[in-house]
Inverse folding.
């Protein structure tokens, strides 16, 4: 299973904010540090704000701040929110799979997906920024252009 770019970025943004300390980086600064387009980062930040995991303030003294809910958010819940909980494969899409009625793969993939989420559910954002990850995140700086 491969995560969507937005899911990956959402987790990295939350992790970066979890170690921000007293600083409140802007979306533009986070995008630069993560080496992603600003527009993509802005969409992810807006979704995380909508979920109540971070606060975004504009203007002087503004920036991004992780909320308490963001700090204790389950990694599994964040991944589910961005990935959705649909099947790994679309057996009944526009061209349904001819093996649909007798296939055992779909059930196996559902169980694997459930196990994937179950392994992420107990992890919080705080858990994944524990050393040595946190200090590495603090050292991120924008790549030179």
């Amino acid at each position: 299973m491969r995560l969507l770019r937005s899911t990956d970025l959402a987790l990295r943004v939350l992790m970066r904010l979890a170690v921000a300390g007293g600083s409140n980086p802007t979306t533009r600064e986070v995008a630069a540090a993560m080496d992603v387009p600003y527009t993509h980062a802005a969409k992810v930040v807006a979704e995380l704000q909508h979920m109540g995991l971070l606060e975004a303030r504009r203007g002087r003294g503004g920036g991004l701040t992780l909320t308490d809910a963001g700090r204790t958010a389950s990694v599994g819940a964040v991944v589910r929110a961005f990935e959705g909980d649909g099947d790994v494969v679309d057996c009944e899409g526009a061209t349904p799979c001819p093996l649909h009625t007798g296939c055992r793969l779909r059930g196996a993939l559902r169980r694997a997906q459930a196990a994937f989420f179950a392994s992420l559910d107990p992890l919080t954002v705080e858990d994944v920024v524990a050393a040595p990850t946190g200090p590495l995140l603090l050292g991120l700086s924008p790549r030179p252009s």
User: Anything to note?
Assistant: The chain is about 50% helix and 5% strand.
